[in-house]
């Protein structure tokens, strides 16, 4: 049966069934689709069964541990995405963006939380007040894993994430800074990494890109590795640095207030630490309209923060 014949029947079908079909196809199991759609596996199974009964075609081949698309199901993916995208665009155009209702799962990192995340959320509330944002703060590696597994809708992180089916949008750069409490007496003079080997260092989580870069710099200069304490909470690093527990290497927005009030001093360290590259990442399929739109909002907030 040609595709127009199959999808000509979609007019009287529940769009939720088509959305369910797409998520089962993307994730390869009813269980994973149920988790993603916040429903039960039985509900997902019933929706797919109803859809297949209406079409008179099997969309999936059932296998131990999951499902895979049938030949008809494979041909149905693009038209189904087109239908969902058109439905979303229709709701935005007719119902206006103020009446768009959805929950968007967003994963982000501490550096962004302390920088332009509040401005991003304000912009989203102004443009899409019907959206509910479900925020998860983790390391970039953790957030990248979540977006690759489709457990979140939008990732705001150090990127890009180079994975088939994902799109990364450039959000510019974020400067890093070496800082220390005044008691160390390091402010106002030039410092090399060799001056830091006997000092405790506080910085990004272990095996993150910034941590790996720092370790390699000491190795390339054939310097003894200093005592490096890692944390996935930059708030914790900030507090410890202010208390004089160690000198810190962090994203500059995290320490802006502490630098302004003098509780931390900016250090002039050579070689300078490279800026962090930020990206918005989302699944690149045709009906993924909201995360795509929010990535543009994130880009505006990020570039405004960069001055």
Task: Output the number of helix runs.
Answer: 12
CATH class of the largest domain: Alpha Beta
Q: What is the end-to-end distance?
A: 56 Å
> Segments where pLDDT lies below 50 for 5+ residues?
1-12
Q: What is the CA-based Rg, rounded?
A: 24 Å
Walk me through what this model shows.
The protein is of the alpha/beta class. The chain folds into 3 domains: 3-95, Arc Repressor Mutant, subunit A, CATH 1.10.10.10; 97-173 and 277-305, Periplasmic binding protein-like II (D-Maltodextrin-Binding Protein, domain 2); 176-274, 3-Layer(aba) Sandwich (D-Maltodextrin-Binding Protein, domain 2), CATH 3.40.190. The chain contains 12 helices and 14 strands. It has helices at residues 3-7, 15-27, 30-37, 41-55, 71-95, 110-113, 117-127, 140-148, 209-220, 234-242, 252-261, 289-305; strands at residues 60-63, 66-69, 102-108, 131-137, 154-158, 166-174, 176-180, 190-192, 201-203, 228-230, 247-251, 265-266, 268-270, 276-283. A 5-stranded mixed beta sheet has the order 4-3-5-14-6, sandwiched between helices. Strand 1 and strand 2 (66-69) form a beta hairpin. Helix 2 (15-27) packs across helix 4 (41-55). The radius of gyration is 24 Å and the shape is elongated.
Using brief descriptors, characterize the structure shown:
transcription cis-regulatory region binding, 22% strand, transcription, Arc Repressor Mutant, subunit A, 12 helices, transcription regulation, disordered N terminus, 307 residues, five-stranded mixed sheet, WH_DNA-bd_sf, elongated, D-Maltodextrin-Binding Protein, domain 2, 14 strands, alpha/beta
């Amino acid at each position: 049966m040609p595709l127009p014949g199959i999808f000509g029947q979609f007019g009287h079908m529940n769009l939720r069934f088509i959305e369910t079909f797409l998520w089962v196809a993307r994730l390869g199991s009813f269980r994973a689709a149920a988790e993603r759609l916040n429903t039960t596996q039985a509900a997902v199974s019933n929706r797919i069964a109803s859809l297949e009964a209406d079409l008179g075609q099997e969309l999936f081949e059932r296998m131990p541990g999951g499902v895979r698309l049938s030949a008809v199901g494979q041909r149905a993916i693009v038209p189904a995405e087109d239908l969902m995208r058109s439905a979303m665009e229709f709701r935005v155009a007719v119902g206006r963006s103020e009446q768009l209702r959805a929950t968007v799962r967003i994963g982000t990192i501490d550096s962004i939380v302390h920088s332009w995340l509040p401005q991003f959320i304000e912009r989203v509330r102004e443009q899409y007040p019907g959206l509910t944002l479900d925020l998860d703060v983790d390391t970039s590696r953790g957030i990248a894993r979540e977006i690759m597994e489709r457990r979140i809708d939008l990732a705001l992180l150090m990127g890009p994430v180079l994975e088939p089916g994902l799109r990364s949008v450039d959000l510019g750069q974020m400067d890093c800074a070496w800082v220390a409490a005044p008691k160390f007496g390091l402010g106002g003079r030039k410092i090399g990494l060799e001056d830091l080997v006997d000092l405790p260092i506080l910085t990004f989580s272990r095996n993150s890109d910034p941590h790996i870069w720092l370790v390699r710099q000491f190795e390339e200069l054939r310097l003894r590795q200093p005592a490096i304490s890692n944390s996935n909470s930059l708030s914790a690093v900030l507090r410890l640095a202010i208390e004089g527990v160690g000198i810190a290497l962090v994203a500059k927005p995290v320490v802006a207030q502490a630098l302004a009030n003098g509780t931390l001093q900016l250090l002039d360290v050579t070689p300078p630490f490279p800026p962090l590259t930020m990206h918005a990442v989302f699944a690149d399929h045709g009906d993924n309209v909201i995360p795509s739109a929010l990535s543009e909002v994130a880009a505006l907030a990020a570039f405004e923060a960069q001055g």
